[in-house]
Amino acid sequence: MATDGSRAYGASDDPHGDHRLVIAIDGPAAAGKTTVARAVAEELGAILLDTGVLYRALTLKALRSNANLGDGDALAGLARQHHIDIVPLSRDDGRLYDVLLDGDDVTWEIRTSAVDANVSIVAAHSPVRNALLPVQRRIAASRGAIVMVGRDIGTTVVPNAGTKIFLNASAEERARRRQHELQERGVEAEIGQLTDDLRRRDELDRSRATSPLRPADDAIIIDTDGQSIDMVVELVEDLVRTAWDRLGVPETATGIARGNLRA
């Protein structure tokens, strides 16, 4: 097994598709995954997919429907009955793309405190994760070079990803980042409450029975405390390019056509 976060380039042994061009970036909430992934994707000409938006959209639907968040089978049924799309952004307001729920733009609605407080509960259900797993794998196998962001990309969703990164940071640092993000959208939040919420979510994510939050055995772990975004982005880009060189991936294999990211 490679020690630089990459897998040897050869015949894919993933029954769900060839995922050697997948760049998996995992880590706890507010560790900077999406910010880093966006910059890396732009630099490398790759597609970006934050898989957490699928769970957030489902959580929003469940809250709107007054669904029992403790009933995993019912939530999985909601996931199959309602359509979640991820499409190119329609406006320049800080979003990475549009998130559509049954055709309605819910890009910012899935970032509310109510969704924040409940998404880990919804995502912890095995039936829910099973219902959304094929969608994620299909996207991963069909998009060429793609950066996928989540909590279990390298361990469960795409265990044969060509490059695996795990970004980490202290709860205090992540709370400061989350507070800044909310303030930029005109939302005030108390730093102590944000820190407590993140610690609670960490515990839920790490202790869930299905696909708990943890680094893949062959992932590169990067502690982002005290590091600028530019520093982390540069490090990740170097790791990806090293992995692609190791895999023997030709430059033409990494090129993709930017298009509709339809889940």
Q: Note the beta-strand portion.
A: 5-15%
**In the CATH scheme, what's the topology name?**
Rossmann fold
For the largest sheet, list the strands in their spatial order.
Answer: 2-6-1-7-8
Uncertain segments are: 6-12, 256-263
Structure description:
Helix content is 46%, strand content 13%. It is α/β, with parallel strands linked by helices. The chain has a single domain, classed as Rossmann fold (3-Layer(aba) Sandwich), CATH 3.40.50. Strands 2-6-1-7-8 form a 5-stranded parallel sheet. The protein has a 3-stranded antiparallel sheet with strand order 3-4-5, covered by helices on one side. Strand 4 and strand 5 form a beta hairpin. It is globular. The C terminus is likely disordered.
List keywords for this structure.
single chain; 263 residues; alpha/beta; Rossmann fold; five-stranded parallel β-sheet; three-stranded antiparallel β-sheet; 10 helices; 8 strands; 46% helix
